[in-house]
Design goal:
Layout: H1 7-17, H2 20-26, H3 34-44, E1 46-48, E2 63-65, E3 68-70, E4 74-76, H4 89-100, E5 105-106, H5 114-120, E6 126-129, H6 135-147, E7 152-156, H7 166-171, H8 181-188, H9 191-198, H10 218-228, H11 235-245, E8 249-254, H12 257-266, E9 270-273, H13 287-298, E10 303-306, H14 313-321, E11 326-329, H15 331-362, E12 376-378
Length: about 400
């Protein structure tokens, strides 16, 4: 196997090892994928200011996210079907995050359940909640996350309805995959993935099957999920969830300054500036471009985090310099997981950490808390005015 030097190396390896429908599920956006592409390309337009003759000894990337100590201000984002990138994927990713010292966030639409992850890890993890029409089910999910010792609840606000992802429709995405001729041909070339799946019983949405009313098998599940995402989600629901949860609450999917101010009023502990990785509203602004405007709107009233488009430690540094107190990687760790399992997630974290540490040094700093807009140079007139 070739030497792994960057996240792109992991992506290429994952593309070879993961069945097409699950690789495409992770590596795609909605409609024309313009926002998906902008999430990464807008990072490229932000240039770094190099400083020299600065003491670079004794550097540290340690920080805090919502009061929790982290080895670097990077968390693993909640991603659906993680356990289809690699057998027991959520468990493996959570283990890697725990050993590295960063938060892992489990998705409602995970393959491994809340209880599966809790039984196989010792550090508290975070749980991401989708609001369903069935409020009893949502309340039970919150109760299960509490019982598992989850230390934060991440409430996703930008998926009341599903954006259309053309690749998923063309691939006939299901978990587990249907045994069509096309799928069997593809799976026959992914023997490593197949052997892993044969060795686990976790092959469907275990947070749902057996927990939601009337969902006891895959046929029930498909009809249930089609009906259950709640298009009537409002700030009143946020208040209800905050009361039910009672702990640290993070609101994910903020792309507008007014929404950020409403999040402050809701009493949440943090917001995540995010466009769902370009998987919802195609044509929406990239997360990194809108980040400074939202930071300016809320000041120190709430902790601002950011995801969507981060593929390197340099991307992390740019987000921190623009005011984020934490960042999240989704696809970056999924590529590692699909490529090499738990070892691949660890490798992804190592890559991000090394890039962040070295870039911070080249920019003249020894602590991530010292980073600011002065470390960046405005690349062109399109970039927001918060860059010089």
């Amino acid at each position: 196997m070739a030497t792994i030097t960057c996240i792109e190396d992991l992506r290429l390896l994952a593309k070879r090892r993961v069945p097409k429908m699950f690789y495409d599920y992770a590596d795609s956006g909605s409609w024309t994928e313009s926002t998906y592409r902008a999430n990464s390309s807008d990072f490229d337009r932000i240039k770094l200011r190099q400083k020299v003759a600065v003491n670079m000894e004794n550097r540290s990337t340690k920080a805090q996210m919502i009061g929790q100590d982290v080895a670097m201000p990077v968390a693993l984002a909640p991603t659906g079907l993680t356990g289809m990138q690699c057998a027991d994927g959520e468990i493996k990713a959570a283990k890697a995050a725990e050993k590295f010292g960063v938060p892992f966030t489990l998705s409602t639409m995970s393959i491994c359940s809340i209880e599966d992850v809790a039984e196989n890890t010792s550090a508290p993890f975070w749980f991401q909640l989708y609001v369903m029409r069935d409020k009893e089910y949502s309340a039970n999910l919150i109760a299960r996350a509490k019982a598992a010792g989850c230390s934060a609840l991440v409430l996703t606000l930008d998926l009341q309805i599903l954006g259309q992802r053309h690749k998923d429709l063309k691939n006939g995405l299901t978990a587990p995959p249907r045994m069509t001729v096309k799928n069997m041909i593809d799976l026959s070339t992914k023997w490593r993935w197949g052997l892993g799946m044969l060795g686990t019983r976790r092959r469907t949405f275990r947070n749902i099957v057996g927990h939601a009313k009337g969902v006891s098998n895959m046929n029930d599940l498909s009809s249930w999920t089609a009906e259950q995402f709640d298009p009537a989600l409002s700030w009143d629901d946020v208040a209800w969830i905050k009361e039910q949860w009672g702990g640290k609450l993070i609101l994910k999917g903020i792309l507008d300054a007014d929404d950020a101010r409403l999040a402050v009023k809701s009493g949440a502990d943090a917001i995540i500036v995010s466009n769902h990785g370009g998987r919802q509203l195609d044509g929406a602004v990239s997360a990194i471009e809108i980040l400074p405007e939202i930071v300016a709107a809320v000041g120190d009233d709430i902790e601002v985090h950011m995801d969507s488009g981060i593929r390197s430690g340099q991307d992390v540094l740019k987000a921190l310099a623009l005011g984020a107190k934490g960042t999240y990687i989704g696809r970056a760790f999924l590529y590692g997981l699909g490529a090499m399992g738990e070892e691949g997630v660890t490798r992804a974290l190592e890559i991000i950490h090394r890039e962040l540490d070295l870039t911070m040094a080249f920019c003249g700093h020894r602590r991530v808390g010292e980073l600011g807009p002065d470390n960046l140079i405005r690349a062109d007139h399109v970039m927001n005015p918060y860059l010089r």
